[in-house]
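Render Hydroxysteroid dehydrogenase-like protein 2 in 3D.
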Amino acid sequence: MLPNTGKLAGCTLFITGASRGIGKAIALKAAKDGANIVVAAKTAEPHPKLPGTIYTAAAEIEAAGGKALPCIVNVREEQQIINAVEKAVKTFGGIDILVNNASAISLTGTLETETKKVNLMMDVNVRGTYLTSKTCLPYLRKSKNPHILNLSPPMNMNPMWFKNHCAYTISKYGMSMCVLGMAEEFRGEVAVNALWPKTAIHTAAMDMLGGSGIEKQCRKTDILADAAYCILTKPKSFTGNFIIDEVLLREEGVKDFDVYAIAPGHPLMPDFFLDAEIDMTATKPESHGASQTFKEEKKSSESSTAPASGPVAETFRVIQGAISKEFVRSTQGVFQFELSGEEGGTWYIDLKTNDGSAGFGKPPVTADVVMSMSSGDFVKMFTGKLKPTMAFMSGKLKIKGNMALAIKLEKMLTQFNSKL
């Protein structure tokens, strides 16, 4: 862990989305120095599924040694931002640091993303970040060492980061574009940087996306708190950077990263938008182009007879033998697999009707979940060499339909793996 230096004592931080998760972790780290924290978040009443409110976060900040000002702020509402900023200045005398942490996510394809979800992501991620920065900047410019820090990724134009969740990617890159533009616009006056995790971070949002057990593949929010603290204590000349938490902390001399792991020694899931951290050995260089993908899809759609042998056929034989009434009763889902490459075609696992079944072709009833991937990755997934969550996040697996059932598949695989 990175020790505190006391450099943020007396500084005022305006943090959006600070009632829980990463925002609260950054607030608590600064509070240990005796900083003033504006908890700018929308949760005033307890949420049925998510822990924490602006008031419980404020209590934790005070207990850690800081001063807290809880403010009800939905960053979609400009007047709420303005009111909170004015209240912060009146209470603490100014604003030294803005952390744009509030974010909305929907990992859905273009046709599956409802307009209200598109609006939410654009309003919170892009517009909210822009308006909060705009409102704070006049006060930041008066500070001795002002910083804006956006929790957003380095912009990576690899199409795989767009194809599965185009709207979400655009919205997060919108936050990163604010860094690019504002860092230049206010160079010499206000530092503007972006921070992004190398691996998945365990938050309530991650639990909702990945289901139970996902936390073992994640790090604690502490790693981002330490990285943010390191950035915010640098001079304002440190600006326009897209920083990855682990890379920065290694440069700062941190050697033990097990302290940040939820389950030390367990493989970690790489975060979105970071190509270098993904095992691309099975992906040919030309597969980013349309022609290769089209050829593979065409080959799979033309295949109408079940392959007699091969890893995929063998996997389905084992699955068929492993299906039990208990599996069917507890799962209640039908999975369809659209596989490309060798042994390509449509395969299915029916864990809903009668005693269940698995094999080549379309399922006997309409599928609840349709998964598209290469046959090679399918075999890796069913033999435990590739986690479904990892496959999905890295673009190797495309999912349509019931996401809750898709998450159930990961649990089911652990039971199948011993037989494969």
